[in-house]
């Protein structure tokens, strides 16, 4: 199992070792990451179509994702509320941005577009099976694994060239405290949810270790545990982001750490405009550091847990 972990981690590490100084090449890498995610999620949908008793399996997927989301979110909200009362981080109404670079509705539409890609994959798989008498389910899984290796290499390169200096990360005590609290409470939630979902302890932890990075967690978990569990991880982390869009405007004035932390890894990208718009510019570096740390931690942690 550890050899499998090394094989999957190797592209991530190799990508992280590559410095990129050309802005056009970096833009190409970013587009490559986005394209790879769409391709793998489409293939995940095709693989889901190959499951026996598809309707029953999808019902199981939805119920398991709901249980996982409820348990982890309860742990997150309790821990982040506790941290908010002790951290002393406050939003600054005087620096609230009237118009964020991206509206929360546009960001939510982007998230839901990924759901549409998975659904399109399921429909495509069913159509192929109906037209040809046999689906390309095994081929889809093989191709998805190859694309996954390329995606990990590109993500490693993104993290290396994100422009986030190590000194800035270490010295931002607010971002560090929020990231550690969110990570620890998520793992506690995954551990509590594992017996409820009839999973091994390490599988429950792995499902919780996406920290909101739904496009990657679903892919990594699905590669190791199959498309059903990959779907559970995907929808659990997607639900986190969607709730974060609603939660941030409501609580950021009184509980800034809770609002920033609940978005998990997305606080450095998708939920950042909403944090900036409602919490002010003082919240931006905290959110970026927290999201970056969680993004850096999530892939190796998921792979490590699944290798146990």
UniProtKB/TrEMBL annotation:
<feature type="transmembrane region" description="Helical">
    <location>
        <begin position="66"/>
        <end position="84"/>
    </location>
</feature>
<feature type="transmembrane region" description="Helical">
    <location>
        <begin position="35"/>
        <end position="54"/>
    </location>
</feature>
<dbReference type="Pfam" id="PF03956">
    <property type="entry name" value="Lys_export"/>
</dbReference>
<protein>
    <submittedName>
        <fullName>Lysine exporter LysO family protein</fullName>
    </submittedName>
</protein>
<feature type="transmembrane region" description="Helical">
    <location>
        <begin position="242"/>
        <end position="262"/>
    </location>
</feature>
<feature type="transmembrane region" description="Helical">
    <location>
        <begin position="135"/>
        <end position="156"/>
    </location>
</feature>
<keyword id="KW-0472">Membrane</keyword>
<feature type="transmembrane region" description="Helical">
    <location>
        <begin position="283"/>
        <end position="306"/>
    </location>
</feature>
<feature type="transmembrane region" description="Helical">
    <location>
        <begin position="104"/>
        <end position="128"/>
    </location>
</feature>
<keyword id="KW-0812">Transmembrane</keyword>
<dbReference type="InterPro" id="IPR005642">
    <property type="entry name" value="LysO"/>
</dbReference>
<keyword id="KW-1133">Transmembrane helix</keyword>
<feature type="transmembrane region" description="Helical">
    <location>
        <begin position="176"/>
        <end position="197"/>
    </location>
</feature>
């Amino acid at each position: 199992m550890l050899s499998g972990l090394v094989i999957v981690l190797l592209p991530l590490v190799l990508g992280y070792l590559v410095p990129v100084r050309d802005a056009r090449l970096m833009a190409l890498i970013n587009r490559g990451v986005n394209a790879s995610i769409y391709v793998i999620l489409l293939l995940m949908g095709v693989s889901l179509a190959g499951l026996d008793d598809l309707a029953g399996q999808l019902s199981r997927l939805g119920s398991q994702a709901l249980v996982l989301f409820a348990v982890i979110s309860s742990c997150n909200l309790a821990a982040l509320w506790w941290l908010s009362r002790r951290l002393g981080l406050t939003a600054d109404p005087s620096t609230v941005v009237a118009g964020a670079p991206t509206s929360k509705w546009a960001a939510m539409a982007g998230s839901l577009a990924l759901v549409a890609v998975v659904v399109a994959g399921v429909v495509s798989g069913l159509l192929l099976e109906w037209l040809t008498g046999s689906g390309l389910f095994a081929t889809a899984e093989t191709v998805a694994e190859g694309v996954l290796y390329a995606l990990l290499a590109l993500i490693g390169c993104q993290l290396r060239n994100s422009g986030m200096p190590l000194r800035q990360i270490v010295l931002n005590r607010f971002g560090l405290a929020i990231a550690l609290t969110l990570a620890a409470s998520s793992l506690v939630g995954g551990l509590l949810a594992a017996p409820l979902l009839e999973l091994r302890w390490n599988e429950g932890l792995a499902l919780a270790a996406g920290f909101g990075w739904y496009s990657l967690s679903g892919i990594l978990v699905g590669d190791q545990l199959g498309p059903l569990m990959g779907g559970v991880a995907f929808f659990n982390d997607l639900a986190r982001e969607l709730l974060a869009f609603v939660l941030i405007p409501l609580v950021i004035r009184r509980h800034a750490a809770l609002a920033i932390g609940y978005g998990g890894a997305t606080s450095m990208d998708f939920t950042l405009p909403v944090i900036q718009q409602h919490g002010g510019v003082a919240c931006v570096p905290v959110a970026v550091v927290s999201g970056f740390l969680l993004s850096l931690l999530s892939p190796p942690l998921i792979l490590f847990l699944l290798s146990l």
